[in-house]
């Protein structure tokens, strides 16, 4: 596609074919916009033989959005697993709270999904929707013009032009950097250790989470009965954990989850990722808008990262209805999108930091006070329901 000539200009070009970028491109195409998607990696694929790697939890709002895009059935066929319970407890006090789908009158609290499965399901629908797809393609330079953005490959070869370009290219977003949008970072000096484990006891279709010292452990239920774990630890502890052999890792994991699921009988290889919160000062510059990790990253303790990104996708595409169809990259459209999402994402970041600090502090009497507060919330049905509605995307 030529990067010059108005008849070749797309309404929307998404850079990055992760879940957020794919959802934005598909939702915009479903609205009749001319859409392209640029991805530097190969087209995502998934099969029954694909090993479990990166996992996320989707709340009800996110799954409803994906259902409207026509990918829920394909996602559930690719090992997405609905869970009906969530248990959270304090390793240094009596605090414990449990959420149950039946109590809330919903079919599920959320779904455990594999990023690879979601990205592959979206890609299949994007192909069927006629979206212009450029896998294994990387932009090298761009021109910001009054009515469009032109992207070029090596040797300034034209790639594509669009009235609006969406940067969904990850936490280190090259597009965000190129546009000069500053980012506030908070390095937690911690890592999330991830693995897939087999447990003696069934996971009971429940997400389990325990706070202990400055660590947070979460077990997310998978469709095959195993659990995907995220173990947030200070960097030096994470290094020691990653150095353990399988048997040592399983024993350490049993202890930190308080033996809740019995013996851990098998584990996959371990991986880890740094825990850094980021928030862009602006969500747009010129005709480039940020979405998902390019705009914000968050501590994983409540599994909200992908849900916030998909909420960005919903909000942005909703702003492209009506008169905005004539110029999706108009300043008024992007300002409205920023108002819709930036304050909400900032609130969630502050809330996660608050949880982390409250549970990570062990001053005299605080664990008992914290436990009392958690028990009161667990017993106060209206407050507990309100918290659940916010956390699970039901409000």
From TrEMBL:
One of its GO terms (biological process) is ubiquinone biosynthetic process. Residues 11-343 form the FAD-binding domain. The chain crosses the membrane at residues 12-29. GO terms for molecular function: FAD binding; monooxygenase activity; oxidoreductase activity, acting on paired donors, with incorporation or reduction of molecular oxygen. InterPro entries: FAD-bd, FAD/NAD-bd_sf, Ubi_Hdrlase_CS, UbiH/COQ6, UbiH/COQ6_monooxygenase. Pathway: Cofactor biosynthesis; ubiquinone biosynthesis. NCBIfam families: Ubi-OHases. Belongs to the UbiH/COQ6 family. This is Ubiquinone biosynthesis protein UbiH.
């Amino acid at each position: 596609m030529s990067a010059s000539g108005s008849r070749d200009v797309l309404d929307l070009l998404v850079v990055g074919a992760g879940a957020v970028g794919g959802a934005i491109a598909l939702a915009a195409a479903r609205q009749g916009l001319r859409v392209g998607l640029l991805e530097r990696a190969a087209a995502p694929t998934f099969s029954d033989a694909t090993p479990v790697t990166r996992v996320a939890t989707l709340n009800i709002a996110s799954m409803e959005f994906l259902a409207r895009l026509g990918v829920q059935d394909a996602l559930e066929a690719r090992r997405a697993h609905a869970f009906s319970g969530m248990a959270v407890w304090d390793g240094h006090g009596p605090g414990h709270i449990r959420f149950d789908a039946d109590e809330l009158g919903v079919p599920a609290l959320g779904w455990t999904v594999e990023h690879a499965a979601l990205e592959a399901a979206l890609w299949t629908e994007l192909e069927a929707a006629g979206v212009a797809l450029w896998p294994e393609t990387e932009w090298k330079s761009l021109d910001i013009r009054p009515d469009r953005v032109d992207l070029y490959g090596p040797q300034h070869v034209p790639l594509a032009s669009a009235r609006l370009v969406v940067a969904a290219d990850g936490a280190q977003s090259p597009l965000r950097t190129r546009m000069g949008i500053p980012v506030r970072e908070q390095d937690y000096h911690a890592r999330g250790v991830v693995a897939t484990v087999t447990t003696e006891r069934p996971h009971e279709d429940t997400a389990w989470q325990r706070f202990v010292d400055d660590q947070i452990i979460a077990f997310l239920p998978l469709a095959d009965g195993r659990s995907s774990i995220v173990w947030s630890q200070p960097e030096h502890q994470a290094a020691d954990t990653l150095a353990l052999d399988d048997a040592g890792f399983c024993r350490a994991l049993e202890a930190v989850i308080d033996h809740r699921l019995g013996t851990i009988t098998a584990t996959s290889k371990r991986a880890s990722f740094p825990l850094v919160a980021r928030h862009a000062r602006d969500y747009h510059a010129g005709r480039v808008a940020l979405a998902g990790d390019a705009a914000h990253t968050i501590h994983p303790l409540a599994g909200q990262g992908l849900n916030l990104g998909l909420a960005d996708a919903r909000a942005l595409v909703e702003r492209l209805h009506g008169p905005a169809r004539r110029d999706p990259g108009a300043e008024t459209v992007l300002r409205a999108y920023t108002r819709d999402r930036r304050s909400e994402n900032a609130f969630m970041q502050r809330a996660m930091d608050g949880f982390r600090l409250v549970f990570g502090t062990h001053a005299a009497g605080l664990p008992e006070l914290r436990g009392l507060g958690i028990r009161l919330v667990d017993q106060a049905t209206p407050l507990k329901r309100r918290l659940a509605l916010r956390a699970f995307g039901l409000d």
